[in-house]
Amino acid sequence: AIGLARPGARTLHSEWSPVNRVDLYGVPGARGGMWGGFGLNPAYEGPVPRALDIQYDAHNGSNVSQIKTPRSLAMLEQHILRTPYLLVEDPRVLVIGVGGGIDILNALYQGAARVTGAELQPITVRLHNTVLSEWTGGQFQRPEVELVAAEGRHFVRSRSQEYDLIQITAVDTFSAQSTGAYLLAESYLYTIEAFDEYLDHLAEDGVFSIVLGDWLYKDELLPSPLAARLAPASILLLCYLGCALGAVLALAGPQGAGAVWVATIVSGLAVAPMFATVLSMAGGRMPITGRATGWFFVGSSVGGMTVPWVVGQLFESAGPTTVFVVALVNLGVGMVMYGVFVLKR
């Protein structure tokens, strides 16, 4: 539990749904969360509101800003999230993925005429309308705001209304992927068919704004200097070699905690770009449609659940080195696949 492990963290609400577990918690003195640092003008010296956190499956989450006065969110005047509102006036806004509500609050602060939010997690919608109502100054209960518990793409398809601005901000809640549950609806928000549906519901001269977020995209920064010089196939090969080096260091290198840390860091850095690199390679060979994405996530889910199960079965009898042995076996299979599908092209 990343956030809940912070010193002084206090759980305010915990609840399960068929989607995932939701925890609402507070940390003494916490202000702004990711929105206080992500996309904010470095020269900004004004106030940043206090924040609570909504966390999903004790991993990914979002911040809920405290609203005391109309100027509580003054930081949004110098924030990247303001950009779309410079292009539209009094817009009708659709927010896909409400989370902690920063997009709803931003729309209201920027003068939106109407704001509709579609949120996959019904618990989050209920929290905004009950427990968090006083914290956010009743902003979500304003007459021009509508919160709907619905998967974003399905919601768009079910409505005939047009919007002046469609906003998708950091809905990439890959906590689902980290547990092997790859089939949640977020996986389909970025397909060709989904984009067609969004654009069909965009008014003339409307704006479609996407802000990618979350730890996956932070990890993707690692290969960025190489991506300008190397093809995805070369980057993937470097990833394989890095993982192999980490496993060999763990199995045959010096003993001790320091060596384990080095091996783990090397392996982690090598694994980080793999997901994005494989998708990039696939995109260069075929259209990334909803059907293709679905099969990709099915395969990833099978691997994401099978490999940890194998490690768990062997861990007690063979010890921690099992993790790296299984990793080497996987790398061997991966190198064979690499040779078949990449080198023979």
UniProtKB/TrEMBL annotation:
<protein>
    <recommendedName>
        <fullName>PABS domain-containing protein</fullName>
    </recommendedName>
</protein>
<feature type="transmembrane region" description="Helical">
    <location>
        <begin position="230"/>
        <end position="252"/>
    </location>
</feature>
<dbReference type="InterPro" id="IPR029063">
    <property type="entry name" value="SAM-dependent_MTases_sf"/>
</dbReference>
<keyword id="KW-1133">Transmembrane helix</keyword>
<dbReference type="Pfam" id="PF01564">
    <property type="entry name" value="Spermine_synth"/>
</dbReference>
<keyword id="KW-0472">Membrane</keyword>
<feature type="transmembrane region" description="Helical">
    <location>
        <begin position="292"/>
        <end position="311"/>
    </location>
</feature>
<feature type="transmembrane region" description="Helical">
    <location>
        <begin position="258"/>
        <end position="280"/>
    </location>
</feature>
<keyword id="KW-0812">Transmembrane</keyword>
<dbReference type="InterPro" id="IPR036259">
    <property type="entry name" value="MFS_trans_sf"/>
</dbReference>
<feature type="transmembrane region" description="Helical">
    <location>
        <begin position="323"/>
        <end position="343"/>
    </location>
</feature>
